[in-house]
Amino acid sequence: MERLAHEIATAGPGMIGLGVVLLLALLAAIVIAAFRRGTGRRADTLERELQNLVRAQTEMQGRMATMAELFGNRQAELDASLGTRLDGLSRRIGSTLHQQHQTTHENLRRLQERLAVIDAAQNNIQSLARDVVGLQAILSNKQTRGAFGQGRMETIIADALPAGTFRFQATLSNGTRPDCVVDMPNGAPPLVIDAKFPLEAWNALRDAQDDDAKRAASQRFRRDLDTHIRDISGKYLLPGETQDTAFLFVPSESIFADIHEHFEASVQRAHAARVVIVSPTLLLLSIQVVQAVMKDQRMREQAHLIQGEVAHLIGDLGRLNERVEKLNSHFSQARQDVEQIRVSTGKIARRGERIGALEFETRADPAADRNDNPSTPDEADDPATSGVGRMKLRVVDED
């Protein structure tokens, strides 16, 4: 009974009526069985129990109705709450999906931009790889490698020196042809520059993997460098025809630094053989020094012309000084004339003032006036200043 009541209580509103019917049927069956088994003595007891059961059933129906109403309200509240939560969840899911869509779109756009940059970089890398392969092909050929070093040397020489002061592949008296000959000023012998650096042995040293291979490549490079230094000293250093020092051009600053760092003995042998190992920067500096010497020679050659121009300039300056002195004398004479004009105008002004004041008096000594101012003209013949017609006007005050 308790299990049945619990199932009825936990059942939905639609199952409550069915539970009540089943419960009533069960109670009726119990009562009928009790009547059949009981005796007359137990009839009253069963009747009381039946009344108690009927009363309990009525109470249970009331409680079940209350529970059904409560379950109905709770179900409605649950439906409303679930609807509200589902609506909020749907809005949040929609907003989240929209934000994720925007974020995904932005990430895809950035990814496309980065892929474009990567494609451009990959194209540059491929182009660089082709250039490196081409450079490797150039350096693998001795003739082409020599042309590469000579091309750099010729570019530096042609940019730094004026035309006509250097020669490429010139032939010396012994039949040798150095890469470049720079004509020195003041009739000095030309300077020889060689660009045939043993780059093949250097590449073998650079590509060596283990210590034995590096040692063998180092010995080969040292041997080739010493041989090339002896060749330059023997072929290009001709007394009276070339300078007593020649340049060995190295087409790379890094190779030049490595030679001075790891092959000091070869550098010392080059100095002893009067062969100077130069990098592109040192060659440019040396050529600039030669250019300065050439410029100084040209200035010395033109010194007599400059002196002649200075002499002409001094003559012009003397004539200008004479003309200034003449002009100064003219200014002095004009200044004296102006002073005389000022004296005359002063006298005229004073006479005008006397005439305006009616002061006509006879002069006692006209010569004294002339002596006081010798620069004034002779006024004896002037009727205005002579004694003829001169009168004295007296003003008499009348009472």
From TrEMBL:
<feature type="transmembrane region" description="Helical">
    <location>
        <begin position="15"/>
        <end position="35"/>
    </location>
</feature>
<keyword id="KW-0472">Membrane</keyword>
<feature type="compositionally biased region" description="Basic and acidic residues">
    <location>
        <begin position="359"/>
        <end position="372"/>
    </location>
</feature>
<keyword id="KW-1133">Transmembrane helix</keyword>
<keyword id="KW-0812">Transmembrane</keyword>
<dbReference type="Pfam" id="PF02646">
    <property type="entry name" value="RmuC"/>
</dbReference>
<feature type="region of interest" description="Disordered">
    <location>
        <begin position="359"/>
        <end position="399"/>
    </location>
</feature>
<protein>
    <recommendedName>
        <fullName>DNA recombination protein RmuC homolog</fullName>
    </recommendedName>
</protein>
<comment type="function">
    <text>Involved in DNA recombination.</text>
</comment>
<comment type="similarity">
    <text>Belongs to the RmuC family.</text>
</comment>
<keyword id="KW-0233">DNA recombination</keyword>
<dbReference type="InterPro" id="IPR003798">
    <property type="entry name" value="DNA_recombination_RmuC"/>
</dbReference>
<keyword id="KW-0175">Coiled coil</keyword>
